[in-house]
Design goal:
Length: 119
């Protein structure tokens, strides 16, 4: 993590509303991604909201990536884009049942001959 000049956040970053058990335990983030979010998330949120201004080229590029997500090149930028997509996008919900219920008449038919012989 020392290869970056990105500022550490003033406090550790958690999103207890969308990820109440933590980023990694949600199953969406790896342990490394969780560490990046916790260490730098407060700074990234500040840069995104405009509360902080970029202090170096890496932070300036991050601000540009916010407008054009396809420009994300560093791990920090990619993990923030992933976080934004998962926390602010629509959550997919998969049911075990189908949408349309079959008619009751389709479930059982009495077309087969009876096995009991009549005398």
């Amino acid at each position: 993590m020392s290869e970056t000049v990105f500022r550490h956040g003033k406090k550790r970053f958690y999103d207890t509303k969308k990820f109440p058990r933590g980023f990694a335990k949600s199953g969406d983030f790896t342990l490394g991604e969780e560490e990046l979010l916790i260490l730098y998330g407060d700074t990234m949120l500040g840069l995104e909201s405009g509360e902080l201004s970029p202090e170096n080229a890496e932070e300036q590029h991050f601000v540009e990536v916010l407008a054009n997500p396809e420009l994300a090149s560093s791990k920090i930028e990619r993990v923030w884009m992933k976080y934004v997509r998962l926390s602010r996008g629509r959550k997919r919900f998969h049911t075990l049942n189908g949408r349309n219920k079959p008619d009751a008449s389709d479930d059982y038919t009495d077309d087969e001959p009876s096995l009991v012989e009549e005398d």
